[in-house]
Amino acid sequence: MRRKLLVAASILVLVTGMNAETEPNHLAGEHSLYLSRASRQPVDWYPWGKDAFRRAAELHVPILLDVGAVWCPWCDLMDRDIYSRPETAAYINQHFVAVKVDYDASPKLVAQLVRAQAVLNLPAGLPLTSFITPEGKLYFGAGYLTAQENNPRRSFREVTDEALARFADSSKIGKESIQLEVEK
Predict the structure, then answer these.
(1) 151 lies in some domain
(2) Is residue 54 part of a domain?
């Protein structure tokens, strides 16, 4: 019995990136399986809401929004290969307020995000990676991103660096953004 529990715990660590040393982030206590799986990732995830937007405004940083689902294999890959890495989490926590949304639990928000990214001619599938100002303007986004640079697909770091550069040039954000209408 003890061996079975040890094996199950090892699989949980491999699949979710959770470990006993990682403090829970703001997703601790969320009822969604997708969100609760990320509660012990080293990224300081927030659920969608006023607290995340308030924090982004206080820090004068953009929001990195990750939309995914438990049934999405690409979402699982990004969680494992990007968000569970301490060095990547440190970069995210320094430059963004990170927000995670469950695709299945937030259909109105997801529909609006998908429409906004499509209007801006940005990828709009799963996983969905969006960059939003503290005022709620979606200004950049992507779909699945790889951990490695020099890949045919754009890497997570390349996209986040571009998102930060766009955020720094606020003159472009007003022209090339969509104000989200979903209540925060």
Answers:
(1) yes
(2) yes
